[in-house]
Design a protein that fits this description.
Blueprint (H helix, E strand, L loop, with lengths): L7 E2 H10 L6 E4 L4 E2 L1 E3 L9 E4 L12 H6 L4 E5 L3 H14 L3 E5 L2 H14 L5 E6 L4 H12 L5 E3 L9 H6 L8 E5 L7 H9 L3 E4 L7 H4 L2 H9 L10 E5 L5 H5 L5 E5 L7 E6 L5 E5 L2 E5 L4 H16 L4 H10 L8 E3 L4 E4 L6 H13 L6 E6 L8 H13 L5 E5 L4 H9 L5 E5 L2 H11 L5 E5 L10 H4 L2
Parallel strand pairs: 4-5, 5-6, 6-7, 8-10, 8-11, 9-10, 11-12, 12-13, 18-22, 19-20, 19-22, 20-21
Antiparallel strand pairs: 1-3, 2-7, 14-15, 15-16, 17-18
Length: 470
């Protein structure tokens, strides 16, 4: 998609940063240098981009300021601490390149201030934020499909839901958009409050409080505290949603300045039930309309009900809700069904204990004539809870309907041991070498088998797809 050359000028960006209380920020170069989006990788920078020099775990963007300029970036953000060194390299280029540098104490905070100012330029946008330990991307995609049946919708691309990604997403808001739905993820304390400050949602929904990132935050209670901050910018006019059966339902509602409603099969208005169609998804009754919802599993039905609650809140006509539900398609690695001689459920874009349990239970629920193989990869970011959570998944696998369990990744060793202790009688394997895993799985499979691929992004189980889909 072609981007407009200028949405924000360097001078306007500086004003936004000052408005956010960052008085020390200053501008070097041409105030009129303009951009229409934000890049944090110099390889992606072009003549329409603001390049933000962020310091990461493996690289520091300040080392690539010149490359960004050479790629045509008209505006840069650099930190005060690194500017004296960088100035020697690029200051002489600013005039020649008709570019500008915003020198700030904190590059990320400056980006967030500019992103918020950009979002505020579309005051008619009704803003919806979605967070949760699992299901937020799918809920966002389902809701966006519903809203898009009748109006222009703004949303995050993919899962650009972090302190950086949400900021970048603000530049993609179409001036004609009436509804913006954005997922908001966090993996550190204080991040959700930052995200709420950027978006300032009119409607906010917490899909659930689970164990994703528990290794970073320490407990589900701490996760709930951070998720609750999605409501932190409420002033009494906004509406929040929490799961009707969530363990933290009462806590999430407590003290919020605004109305907080339940969502779920018992409380979402218009939802009148659903029939499980196995690998074909669900037949849903919405306001008396019979809808074919194609995503599989109870967890995805829960995501759909969350999206229906949002649709009901903004007054979406029932037929648009039905059409949006039917138009949904699975994202890569999220409950995909790959059919062939072997049927594969590719659900390996991410994994945490809740989603892994849901995936196993769904596969067990299927009426299946052939054999079942569950390939379980490491669940990452569980910290001190890793062994216990993997043991629990292994025990569940050990009493499941699987004919073979393949555990991949060092973190799954306790799962393998737990499955064995549970008395699993099928083929039981633990492996840390991907090539050996692939060879063993391929050797075991035969026509008519069902394979579940479930693991965290870091173990990339989708690599198995080519060798088993035939």
């Amino acid at each position: 998609m072609a981007r407009p050359p200028v949405l924000v000028t360097a001078a306007e960006a500086l004003a936004a940063i000052h408005e956010a209380g960052i008085a020390e920020a200053r501008l070097e170069g041409l105030p009129g240098a303009g951009f229409s989006w934000a890049a944090v990788d110099s390889r992606e920078a072009d003549s329409t981009s603001l390049f933000v020099a962020l310091a990461g775990a493996k690289a520091d963007g300040h080392d690539y300021l010149r490359q960004a300029l050479d790629s045509g970036a008209p505006c840069l953000i650099a930190s005060e601490a690194r500017w004296p060194e960088a100035e020697k390299t690029i200051a002489s280029l600013l005039e020649a390149k008709a570019a500008a540098v915003l020198v700030v104490p904190d590059c990320l905070r400056a980006l967030q201030a500019i992103a918020k100012a950009r979002r505020e330029r579309v005051p008619s946008l009704r803003r919806i934020g979605v967070t949760g330990s699992s299901g937020k991307t799918t809920t966002k995609e389902i809701a966006a499909s519903i809203f898009a049946q009748g109006q222009v919708v703004a949303m995050n691309a993919g899962n650009l839901n972090s302190d950086i990604g949400l900021s970048q997403s603000m530049f993609g808001i179409d001036e004609d958009a009436k509804i913006g739905i954005f997922e908001m993820g966090m993996n550190r304390r204080g991040e959700m409050e930052e995200l709420a400050g950027i978006l300032e949602p009119d409607i906010a929904l917490v899909t659930n409080v689970g164990t994703a990132h528990i290794g970073i935050l320490g407990s589900r209670a701490a996760i709930a505290k951070e998720k609750k901050d999605i409501f932190s910018r409420f002033d009494g006019r906004q509406v929040g949603y929490v799961g009707e059966d969530d363990d933290f339902n009462a806590y999430l509602k407590e003290g919020v300045r605004g109305e907080v409603r339940d969502f779920g099969p018992l409380t979402t208005k218009g939802f009148r039930g659903a029939k499980d169609l196995g690998l074909d998804g669900y037949a849903v009754d919405w306001e008396g309309l019979q809808v074919r919802f194609p995503l599989i599993g109870r967890h995805n039905l829960a995501n759909a009900i969350a999206a229906m609650a949002l649709a009901e809140c903004v007054g979406t006509p029932p037929r648009e809700v039905a059409a949006g539900l039917e138009a949904v398609r699975p994202l890569f690695g999220r409950s995909e069904i790959l059919r062939g001689e072997v049927t594969v459920i590719r659900d390996c874009y991410n994994a945490n204990p809740d989603s892994a349990e849901a995936a196993i239970e769904f596969c067990d629920s299927l009426v299946w004539k052939g054999r079942r193989a569950y390939v379980i990869g490491s669940m990452l970011e569980l910290g001190a809870e890793s062994d216990a959570e993997h043991r629990a998944i292994g025990e569940l696998g050990g009493v499941s309907k699987a004919n073979a369990l393949f555990f991949f990744g060092e973190e799954t060793r306790p799962a393998f041991e737990s499955a064995r202790a549970a008395g699993f009688t099928g083929l039981l394997l633990f492996e840390t070498d991907f090539d050996r895993l692939r060879a063993m799985l391929q050797a075991w499979l035969r026509k008519g088998d069902l394979v579940l691929l479930k693991g965290s992004r870091g173990v990339a189980l989708e690599r198995l797809t080519e060798s088993i889909c035939r």
